[in-house]
Design a protein that fits this description.
The chain is mainly α. The chain is 64% helix and 7% strand. A two-stranded antiparallel sheet has the order 1-2. Helix 2 crosses helix 6 and helix 4 packs across helix 5. The relative contact order is 0.11.
């Protein structure tokens, strides 16, 4: 028996692996949106995190992490530079002192307001490059994976 892994296995993974294709697309999209948001001092991940805090009631870290598909420790690490910049505040939950609630500061809201037109323009350009049914169909398929 030949211990070598056949090249056909590599081609199978290259052609079939959804994880590979989604990761490649995610990296390409991340680069595109990082570039668009760079003038505002934000990455696409920071923009998404800040936008997820734009809600009437401050969420708990434990409630927000699944929405962002992160574990709590990764979310906590992602919050550190945003807290240092004064864009996010963290307070104890009134009902459970062990839990922490996250809020946009006024500076965080202003950063989002400033960056939103650039995000929209990048998204409009991306959507325009997809087939007519593409953006909605793609979003639906991706929601089905999450």
């Amino acid at each position: 028996m030949d211990p070598a892994l056949p090249l056909s296995a590599t081609h199978e993974v290259r052609d079939r692996c959804l994880c590979l294709h989604v990761q490649r697309a995610a990296r390409a999209l991340a680069r595109r949106f990082d570039e668009a948001l760079r003038p505002f001092g934000l990455t696409n991940g920071q923009f998404s995190l800040l936008m997820s805090l734009n809600r009437p009631e401050p969420p708990r870290i434990g409630d927000l992490a699944p929405f962002l598909a992160m574990d709590a420790s990764t979310l906590t690490a992602a919050l550190k530079p945003l807290r240092r910049r004064g864009l996010v505040s963290v307070t104890a939950d009134a009902e459970d002192a062990r839990a922490r609630r996250l809020s946009l500061t006024e500076a965080g809201r202003e950063a989002l307001k400033a960056a939103l037109p650039a995000w929209r323009a990048a998204h409009d350009a991306l959507d325009a490059g997809l087939p007519e049914e593409g953006p909605g169909a793609l979003r639906g398929l991706l929601r089905g994976l999450g």
